[in-house]
Structures are given as C-alpha cells and as structure tokens.
Specification:
- This protein is extended.
- Strand 15 and strand 16 form a beta hairpin.
- The chain is an alpha+beta fold.
- The protein is 20% helix and 22% strand.
- The strands form 8 sheets. Strands 2-1-5-3-4 form a 5-stranded mixed beta sheet, covered by helices on one side. It has a 3-stranded antiparallel beta sheet with strand order 6-7-8.
- It is built from 7 helices and 20 strands.
- The chain has 4 domains: 77 residues, Roll (Ubiquitin-like (UB roll)); 106 residues, no CATH class; 59 residues, no CATH class; 74 residues, no CATH class.
C-alpha cells in the first residue's frame, strides 16, 4: 500500500487544547512525530520530550512507522510533556546551581560561594561537593543554599503557606529569618517572565487570603472590602451590580428581616450558627463558681467554638471536650486557664491569668 501523504493527526495536548498535524506520512516514524510536536509547540521550552498515548497505550518504540502503529488520518493521540525539575536544566557536574551571569549577580549583589548547602532538605541536594552555592545579601548569617533548596524555600514560603507575602530564610534560628528581596530571588532562581507573573498572582491571592475584610461580591464578582462596617449586612458599591443586600460572612443573599445585622437568616451561615449558640448561652442556667456569682453554666470554647457545660460544683475551670481541641479556659471571664489546685484538676497553681480581677463575661463572640 502506498504511503498516505499529508496525514491528518489530531493531538490532544491538555484536555482543553488540541492541534492538527498534516505534514507527516504513514511511513514517517514515531520519533519524527514527536519531534514535529516539540518543534511546533515547545521549541522555546526546556522539556525532556513528549510521551504519546494511542489507543490507551504509550507509543514506546520510536523506530516504528505510523502505519505500523495503525495511525491513520483523523486519528486522535494524547500528548504528555515530560518536564525537567526546576525552572532550568541542571548541567551534569554543576550540582544544583544553573550557571548565573556574573555581571547580573554583581548588579544584584548575589554571591556564589564555594561551600556546602546549609539546608540540605532537597532529596538529591548536593550538600558537600564543594560546588558554588547561592548567598543572598539580606541574610545576616550569610546562609548558603543550593539552587534546589532555595527554590524549595521560595515555593514553601509563597505557595505552600498560602498567606505569606515574603520569602524568608529557613535558617531562622541563626539569622533571625531574614526576608529576601523578591527581584533577587527571581534572578537567583532564573525565573522567566511567565513564572514571575505566576508569583505575583500568588502574592495577591496570599494577601486576599489573610485579609478577612476582602471578599468577592456574589453578584458581580468584584473584590470588595468591608471597611468601617461592624456588621455582616452589606451591599455592593458597584452601580451596575443589582444583587442587593448580602451577608459578608457567607456571601449569600440576605434573608432576615430582623434588626440584627449580623444574622443573615441562612442556616448554613457561620454567623447564624454562632448566633444560635450565643442564644443558648444567654438563656442557660447560671450559678456561682469559685466565689463568682451569676456565671453561665454553658460556654463556647474560645478556640473551637464548641459548646461546653459546667456540670458540677467544682471550680470555674473548663476544658473543651473536643478531641482536636482540649483548650482550658475560665468559665467566668473566658481567659486561658493554666492550672489549679482543685480536687478535679490537681495542678500546682490557681486560677486564670486574670484571677485577681476575674469577672463574668456575658458577651461571647
């Protein structure tokens, strides 16, 4: 059978993007098909190659022709990119540090020191081979890292702990946790423009994640900030948004017609759940504890917000019964409890931190 020219092959690249190749013939080999994809899609990328999936199996023999693999016009293959570790290729013999331009290092005051990596947490980190390591000028202790460990610090600070906005030295017990200049980190790790953009987007997400007063409007999806408002009932300031009043706590439509602007009326709202617990506390029985009168017998744990009941005539010390909590606190003033000498607790000292001025705290939020 004569070869079929201008073979039309559909390549599924990532589940969302697909490309069409029409320059190959059935006598071309799998190797040429892979190289055609690399030249077209990944010419400027640092990849190890591509893996092709056809009929649920990997095309592993690059020497076979497309005809031998039963690939014909309108066949659909899936392409998997084989990435390298890190952002740049690691040249054999250079340890974990890609080659840095000396003039650029001098400009940003980055030093390459011939010593061992002081962190050594990366699985294949070269800790003592004498290769040059990266030393950032902000570090008071002059800590040195291999490329992979510095990349791990960068990733952990900004992406794993998703409320950080700084890259901080991991050897904090020695240098006090110096904060690294972000531009220097970009240079030391040789992050390209796209990777830097990803970093900036993550930094913005981290800021929003740790700012409880910034949320997304459920109507127009604009980011809005609650400033100078001490309750949950809000309305979007964007003129084109017609969503109306909504709850800042649960980001749902406001349901309640009551005068309490902290309870939206949605049963799954955290503010409604807390309000129900407060209602139980306000209406529960009260008694005298350790000489202090009129103390509610039911309290909400200041740590996990579980309801705890003071069920006996012992001291005012309560310990949360939650298996993942166990927080000890004073049933009267709600302050943290350390230890006491009562028969049940059998500690060495008495009282909460406010023991001499302890008084009943009625409002609990």
């Amino acid at each position: 059978m004569p070869p079929i020219r201008n073979l039309r092959i559909n390549m599924d690249m990532d589940g969302k993007k697909s490309i069409v190749l029409n320059t190959l013939t059935t006598v071309d080999k799998v190797e040429k098909l892979k190289q055609t994809i690399i030249d077209r899609e990944y010419a400027d990328r640092n990849i190890k190659g591509v893996k092709l999936i056809w009929r649920g199996k990997v095309l592993g023999d690059d020497t076979k022709t497309l005809a031998q693999c039963k690939i014909k016009s309108n066949s659909v293959l899936t392409c998997i990119v084989r990435l390298r570790g890190g952002t740049q290729a690691v040249t054999s013999g250079e340890g974990c540090v890609p080659e840095l331009d000396e003039d650029v290092c001098n400009k940003y005051n980055i030093k390459l020191v011939k010593t061992s990596c002081q962190l050594g947490t990366s699985g294949d980190c070269c800790t003592s081979d004498g290769t040059k390591r990266i030393q950032m000028p902000e570090c008071n202790y002059k800590c040195t890292y291999c490329y992979k460990c510095l990349k791990e610090i960068y990733t952990r600070c900004l992406f794993t702990y998703s409320q950080n906005t700084d890259v901080v030295c991991s050897l904090s017990t020695q240098c006090g946790g110096s904060t690294y200049d972000l531009d220097r980190i970009f240079i030391a790790l040789q992050l390209d423009e796209k990777e830097q953009q990803i970093c900036f987007i993550q930094l913005n997400k981290n800021y929003l994640g740790r700012n409880p007063n910034v949320k997304t409007c459920p109507g127009c999806e604009n980011l809005v900030e609650k400033e100078g408002i001490d309750h949950n009932r809000v309305v979007c300031p964007v003129k084109s948004c017609k969503f109306g009043d909504w709850c800042f706590a649960c980001q749902q439509k406001w349901k309640s017609n009551g005068s309490n602007y902290n309870i939206c009326g949605n049963d799954d709202c955290e503010s409604s759940q807390v309000a129900k617990k407060l209602d139980i506390i306000i209406n529960c029985e009260r008694k005298t504890m350790t000489g202090i009168k009129n103390v509610p017998t039911i309290r909400m744990c200041p740590m996990c917000e579980r309801l705890c009941e003071h069920a006996d005539d012992g001291c005012k010390h309560l310990t949360c019964t939650g298996s993942d909590c166990g927080h000890g606190f004073c049933a009267s003033c709600l302050d943290k409890w350390y230890s006491c000498e009562c028969e049940n607790c059998k500690g060495d000292n008495t009282g909460c931190t406010l023991d001499t001025t302890c008084k009943v705290e009625d409002i609990q939020v």
